[in-house]
Amino acid sequence: MQQHDSLKADYKFSEEEARILATLQPKMSELSDKFINEFYDYIWGFGSTAKFLKNQKIIDYHRTKIKAWFINLFCGKYDLQYFMYLYKIGEIHVRIGLPTHYVNSAFTFVRTFIIKNIQESIEDEESRLKAIQAAEKIVDINLDTLTSSYREEELSKFLSLSKFEKTILGGLKKFNSYINFFLAGSLALVAFFAIGLFVYDIYLLFFSDIGIEKGILTVLGSLLVLWAAIELIHEEINHLQGKGFAIGAFIMLAMAALIRKVLIYSLSSEKGNDLLVIGVVIVALAFSYWLVNVKNKAPL
């Protein structure tokens, strides 16, 4: 059994379902313009889409190819040629460095769009359910095939390493995981001391001659540091779950600590120079935080 036949067998994709998809093609062809417009609205929200679609010529070419792929999704003939077509698309994704996250997310839109329009166009319940089932399978088969290129690329890179290099790589991964857990524990300790600082400032507010105005500002500053520490722990948890390292959270914690000093020093006429220096540092940190957010979230 050839690989593409084995893949269809694993998904229990039948010839009847292939015929059902073929009957849907005329309707989906009519919807192809609507699909591509909504698809582009969806993927443009990824943030880094412009990194891969750099100019209008590339965009027009990409729209044409995506539209053709969508119509071909209902061709009804899923043979070796069809799967070679998908493999080629997957290889292009790998070559340009398109993250698998974007591919998976885009397929969520494709699935939703198809199911919604099947539900609206087929009145008979039994026929509608069969059509949805067939569409779900072919979408999953396409996603499986496209992402297989990423798995093959990772596997080929790993197999090309020597035994010594594999040992070093494995050791570094373990060491990195230990460091990440150590960092998470350290952040939890920082949050614990931030709570202690907040409680101590509350104590000073009520049981010392610090003054109500300075006491309240000090408490607010401690609360700000505690909030930043909690946010940093949240980002580290995301990092441990496989998401990117949030340098912005560290910048935010540094800003919170400096803002606390500003709140305290603002009541002292003798701290003018210190306030000026801290203010400049806060502005620099704020600019750095903005740059990090622009790079990670804004379209290029």
From TrEMBL:
SUPFAM superfamilies on file: Globin-like
The answer to whether keyword Nucleus applies is: no
Q: What is its main location?
A: membrane
Protein name as annotated: Globin-sensor domain-containing protein
Q: Where in the cell is it found?
A: Cell membrane
| Molecular function via GO | heme binding; oxygen binding
- CDD domains under this entry? GS_GsGCS-like
**Record organism:** Sulfurimonas denitrificans (strain ATCC 33889 / DSM 1251) (Thiomicrospira denitrificans (strain ATCC 33889 / DSM 1251))
Lipid bilayer topology: Multi-pass membrane protein
Per UniProt, residues of the Globin-sensor domain are 3-154
